[in-house]
Amino acid sequence: MWTVEQAMQRLVEELELTPAERENVTRQHGVVRQVLRERLASAEEFLSGSYSRGTALRPLHDVDVFVVLDPVRQPRGQRTPDDLLREIRQVFKQQWPERALPAFQRHSLRIDFSSGIHVDVVPAYRHEQGGYLIPQRDTGAWIRTDPKAHQEACAQADRAAGGRLNPLIKLVKQWNRARDNNSPLRSFHLEAMCYSAFPSPPEGSLLERLEVLFRRLSEQVMKTCRDPAKLGVAVDSLMEPGDREQARNLFQNAFREVGLAVQERVSNPEQAHQRLSKLFGSVYRKRGP
């Protein structure tokens, strides 16, 4: 049986994509980006979302491709968000007439691949004051964002924490995933709250650092979480007061359980393993295969 610290380190490793998986993802988003370049003559396209920030989990379900349209060739004009997404959808219909049409999402189009990974295409226009405008179908509005600023905010937070933050973000995301949809926390909200957790490198073992993070998140979730790019609406704008209370309770419970596992890791490792297995799900293992 592994020690608790060995099991936690293996868990972090299990959440990382393998080289073969990364190669497959690169191939799939590369195909999509080539279509965008050839058929749209886009001004720019780049990866966004958690994959681009290095905080995505294995198994990976989606990759975001951010496509910036040329305002001369593809002027926004009077286009509605729905108009633009339909036009981009038509591009893929023409390119791949035998395939199922991309699915509409709130800000993007989803293109499914047989591997189980889908590529989300987010069309955008540059904003004259910085950042980008992206469509929002449910409101018919154009909202301002900047995924490049999100990437830099994540990188800065990880540097401030001495390179120790991103593994903790992945652990917290896995904990949230293991809640089986019983959590009101969206992935990016959870991640953005982590950025302010460690203004200096945290001390202690991986498990002890995780305990501190859960405590700080239980406090942070009761506050408004601003967009890390300092644009647009707050990341948690859709949360209701009851959602915040529920999330705080979940964080506090996780804080207690991790704290108990820290105390038991030497004196009662079997009990500590059981606690952590409940927190992280079946991906957590106490021994090798």
Mind sketching the topology for me?
Layout: H1 4-14, H2 19-40, E1 44-48, H3 49-53, E2 62-68, H4 81-95, E3 103-104, E4 109-112, E5 118-126, E6 132-136, E7 141-145, H5 147-160, H6 165-177, H7 187-194, H8 206-220, H9 241-267, H10 269-280
Parallel strand pairs: 2-5
Antiparallel strand pairs: 1-2, 3-4, 4-5, 5-6, 6-7
Helix pairs in contact: 2-4, 6-7, 8-9, 9-10
Task: Please tell me about this protein's structure.
The chain is an alpha+beta fold and 289 residues long. It folds into 2 domains: 146 residues, Poly(a)-polymerase, middle domain, CATH 1.10.1410; 127 residues, Beta Polymerase, domain 2, CATH 3.30.460.90. 49% of the residues lie in helices and 13% in strands. It contains 10 helices and 7 strands. Strands 1, 2, 3, 4, 5, 6 and 7 form a 7-stranded mixed β-sheet that branches. Strand 3 and strand 4 form a beta hairpin. The protein starts with a helix and ends in a 9-residue tail after the last helix.
Sum this structure up briefly.
49% of the residues lie in helices and 13% in strands. The chain is an alpha+beta fold and 289 residues long. The chain has two domains: 146 residues, Orthogonal Bundle (Poly(a)-polymerase, middle domain), CATH 1.10.1410; 127 residues, 2-Layer Sandwich (Beta Polymerase, domain 2), CATH 3.30.460.90.
Return the CATH architecture of the largest domain.
Orthogonal Bundle
Write the element-wise H/E pattern from the N-terminal end onward: HHEHEHEEEEEHHHHHH
CATH topology of the largest domain: Poly(a)-polymerase, middle domain
* Biggest pleated sheet: 7 strands, mixed
User: Level of helix content?
Assistant: 40-55%
Q: Enumerate the spans where pLDDT stays under 50 for 5 or more consecutive residues.
A: none
